[in-house]
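Worked example 4.2. Below are the chains of a multi-component assembly; read each line carefully before continuing.
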Amino acid sequence: MYAFEIERPTTIADAVKAMEHDGAQALGGGQTLIPTLKARLAAPDVLVSLTAIGEMKGVCMSDDGMLCIGAATTHATVAREAAAHFPGLAGLASHIGDPAVRNRGTIGGSLANNDPAACYPAAALGTGAVIITNTRQIAADDYFQGMFTTALHGGEVITEVRFPIPQKSHYMKFVQPASRFALVGVFVAKYADGVRVAVTGASEDGVFRWSEAEAALSADFSAKALDGLSVDADGMIGDLHGSPAYRAHLVKVMTGRAVAAAA
Amino acid sequence: MPKDHGIGASDKRREDVRFLTGAGHYTDDIKTYGATTAIFCRSTVAHGIIKSIDTSAAENMPGVLAVFTGADFADVGGNPAGWLINSRDGTPMKEPKRPVLAHGKVRHVGDAYAAVIAETELQARNAAEAIVAEIEELPAIVDMAAGLAGDAFVHDEIGTNQCFDWGWIEDNRAATDAAIKAAPHVTTLELVNNRLVPNAMEPRCSIGNYDAGNDSYVLQTTSQNPHLTRLLISAFVMGIPENKLTVIAPDVGGGFGSKIYHYGEEALVLAAARKIGRPVKWTADRTEAFLTDAHGRDHVTKIELACEKDGTFIAFRTETMANVGAYLSNFSTATPTFLHGTLMAGNYTVPNVYVNVKAVFTNTAPVDAYRGAGRPEATYSIERVIDKAARELGIDPIAIRRKNFVKPDQYPFVSAAGLEYDSGNYDALMDTLEKHIDREGFKARRKESEAKGMLRGLGLNAYIEACGIAPSNLVGVLGSRVGLYDAATVRVNATGNLSVMVGAHSHGQGHETVFPQIVGEMLGIDPQSIDIVHGDTSKIPFGMGTYGSRSLAVCGSAMVRATEKIIAKAKKIAAHMLEASADDVDFKDGQFTVKGTDKSVSFGEVALKAYIPHNFPLEDIEPGLEETAFYDPANFTYPSGAYACEVEVDPDTGKVRVDRFIAVDDFGNIMNPMIVTGQVHGGLGQGIGQALLEGARYDADGQLLSASYMDYTMPRADDLPFYTVDHANGTPCTHNPLGVKGCGEAGAIGSPPTIVNAVVDALQSAGKNVTHIDMPLTPLRVWEAMHKA
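Applying the procedure described above to all two chains together yields the following structure tokens:
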């Protein structure tokens, strides 16, 4: 780790101001950034911790029926407090990492980092969530722009995420054995106007929607509806833990299992 | 009935109180006034020529006290290999120098070529980054076969990448070849014994201290054998006289073999401490542990089993390439040879065995003994090929093993690989295993699994290993450059409590609990009044340390011998106190009595008398009550076992779940059943880890792909089943006083083939023609095997 300054603002306004420093870097729960700093792979001059900002924490329902989660809310809090409203999302949050990760890591941090094997991007894209920042609202379909790449501008801070609540949903994850990140994770959400399917862990382009499965499941929400579909291995990640063909295969298996388990 | 105290009782581990309450003292916990920090510059390429190293900027940075490069150690010795292996043609192995810091070339990713000593860790890291090394990258030698065939060398001065080409037993080669040629059935299997990273919880750490007043050194370090480390530094690397160097290994957080060896960092902190006149500490980070701790296993093997159609074994022939990495670590030449080749007859009466091992230098981290050390490689090859042969011949996997087992009336049995097994009863182990595994119930469980869309397999295995290393006379003939005795001093204090100084080091084994159980029973006193002292060369007799499941069989035997001397002397003192002849004095349950009288004195009274020798027959008996014994074993000990497991395989994902695991072991006499069970559990965890999860993988450029826990899969609790462990079938070792064999490595030796046999059985049950999958059996590999079948 290199030496750095740290600021802990208590309001969004102060956080945005702090982010104007040269070499400023937002710090959520630190579950990715702190190991990166320890390995001397990043050298920010100023870390702006977002975890002391009360207005960025908590889970509630909006008047229009959206589940609103403050960006600095930990996975453990989401697992607990979203369970009654949106069990599919709470289930996802309850299986991220281990208890230590879930009690430090935040939803905003996960979405801002957009790790191609992270769980939350699948939920955000799989529900068509809205990412709210200090300056604007971004639809999930516009937000994710490839591995570790998002629509966020420099200095822009995610403050909240709003999820439309599906009739049924489930997240099915096949874990990479070592890291237990998603080797392939599939979020399936059934709405009155159709089904969304978002896949994390698999693609070199990061989280993506499997549109053929969405169409098939919108017509018939059963695992059987996937018979005959297949996922192209081109563009899938290949590494020690999974070849592109294996990941493509798992996308279909996990989608079927998510549909079967959806509640 | 299990005993409730003394030998055979499950005394709780007293050392766990300090470990579990944060009161342990590990090397990194040592805070010394004036301590400085060492940070190493390590190669990021696997192979390259060091053109230049510019340290000038680093030397002038804040807090920097000294900078070292390989040139500073060009004139000191190298870190040697502990065993000299001769090739089949009689030539000695190639033994290139292993320097303290790389000089001339870097030879693996992580190879240290410079070090910075600074006031703080931050200053040292910053200065290390300011060192500019110009390294001309060379193609990496990673694949062993390519390395043997190619004309680029890890060590140019030896002109080959082959360390040795060893045959065992060379005189049996022709007979084995002929037997295989003539055999009615030959099963051939090619397999890889996967490279493992030891991953002790505590990373390596070393602190060098220099006392200018006495011109003496103290090295505090993470070691399984402080005397061996001292010997290597004194006699080979730095030439510091042994009486001027104290090596202290305090609490050590796991070793598994990786902390047997002397590493360059230990020499560096000593040299640096002398240069700057202050203590110098280095603590590895986890990346350094991955890149530089000696790795384990890494064999590429072809094994053939020749047999009659009825399954009677005729011959085993094995050809192995063993990766030794970039430099020879201290035991690296013994592990693939005498700890592997000599076991290649297994538990069987097979008449012909021949093993050829080629050790190969590569641009990877050094490879050396890791829990099991050679015996897991032997067991895996033998027991996998037997399973394949049984399937080819249509013979039950238990029946084929029983048919060839050494029988109880054949001991001592000299195997075709040259070892003399002293005791065992493999059929009895298999009988017990069969009771536990419930083969009828397995059929029903397989049906239940299939109803869920899962495949269930049953895997079986029998193993033998050689541990309690080792008889010095024998290993000397075989090439060892050290003896493998151990030593203990039993010091009875005046007030009747004891300090027992032992050469074995305890880093998880539970010596502090078990050794007092033994001495306490021998002396008839409370084990709580006995403390074990270990890990400090200034306090303990010269011992060879802890590895090869040797502590109890070798050091424990020395402790028994020393305690017997204590009893003999105490009897003389008691006889004097009781005014009787020593021959008439009996000793039982802590009381000395005179035959045929009611006269007695207690052990405590005798101890006090020894130190307050008023009215003492000084002409016959010296004051004091302290005895030392060295013990050199007459043979290896030969634990054996029969293991079984059931796995469930998800055919859609390839994921394997271990549903049940049964380990039936013969460890001879058991001193503490709870600790033995714990040792088996730990070994099974590591063996199952090797079979399903762990694999160190280098790419073609010699970069370690699995260099962190993001990619190297350590077993977690939920990867492992509840175990059935049974060690009631012990046949005592015939040649040590306690009749003990050693239990530390068995689980890691017996479990990998059990798991792979079970997975193959599961896939075969679904009609898949899969006869082998290389470890680790990750979901990817199992899925790919199923889809190719």
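Take a moment to check your reading of the output against the notes. Chain A has a mean pLDDT of 97. The radius of gyration of chain A is 18 Å.
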